[in-house]
Amino acid sequence: MTCVSLLGLPTDQHSSFLRGAAKAPPAIRDALRSPHAGLTAMNGLVVDDGLLRDLGDAPLREDDGDFERMVEAVRAAFAAGPTVVLGGDHMVTYPVLRGMAEAGVAPPQIVHIDAHSDLYEDFEGDPLSHASPFARIMEAGLAAGLTQLGIRAPNAHLIAQAKRYGVKVFAPHEHAQGLAALPAGPTYLSIDLDGLDPAFAPGVSHHEPGGLTTREVLDVIWRTPGPVIGGDIVELNPDRDINGMTAVLAAKLLKELAARIAADATAWSG
């Protein structure tokens, strides 16, 4: 069975509202390893140290050099094989895709779960804002295509940006259509936890009611045609969590995503 790497990118310097997401990687790791639940994923794989190789966190300093530090850490991780990244805020997806490209990975399809499309050209004067990573990714040609699910905070600028980059956007009430439109081919899955309804994920900086359920997000992980070659889980803010329930949710998604990636990589290589 192919081993999947786990890499933390603990940064929130490009968050636009609240800080706190930099504290997420250890909270998710603790929830994954907690004795309250098992490590067996829905496909029967056990996501233990033999399947998930933890590389720790990149040595970030919350300064201007962090972008290249993230790119290099991701490049090294993907050079060794498929990887799941723990944010941090959603800004990290841009250096992740940069690092994948530097590792020789061809631009993948991206399936993106979020309340927000994160396509701002330049949010509040910060082109690296966590509200802008997919504008940077698409303009740089780092993705073969972008499909977004759970989006429920549009405005005229974001709608125009989606049209500009040919993004397929589905609101929560269009989830069935979104599942039917999931792309085939090598795919990177980016999960912003505020894509789920706050009832399921209260521990995020931006509560946006009316989101996806946990089951709907699991369906995306397992029904994406694939192969799924990597992904990230971002925007957990432990400072806002309730009894650790969002960290536990993130750990569940990590377990399923790692199991899906490992199964696909083994089948693909075989």
TL;DR?
With 270 residues, the chain is an alpha/beta fold. 34% of the residues lie in helices and 18% in strands. The chain has an eight-stranded parallel beta sheet with strand order 2-1-3-8-7-4-5-6, with helices on both faces.
Tell me the CATH topology: Arginase, Chain A
Average of the residue pLDDT scores: 96
Number of helical segments with 4 or more residues: 8
Q: Give the uncertain stretches in residue-range form.
A: none
Q: How many domains in all?
A: 1
Element string (H = helix, E = strand): EHEHEHEHEHEHEHEH
Question: What proportion of the residues is helical, as a percent range?
Answer: 25-40%
Shape: globular
How far apart lie the N and C ends? Answer: 10 Å
Q: Regarding CATH, which class?
A: Alpha Beta
Strand content: 15-25%
* The CATH superfamily title: Ureohydrolase domain
What would you report as the Rg, rounded to the nearest angstrom?
A: 17 Å
Question: Please, what is the oligomeric state?
Answer: single chain
User: How do the strands of the widest beta sheet line up side by side?
Assistant: 2-1-3-8-7-4-5-6
- Please outline the major beta sheet: 8 strands, parallel
What structural class do the secondary elements suggest?
A: alpha/beta
Number of strand segments: 8
CATH architecture: 3-Layer(aba) Sandwich
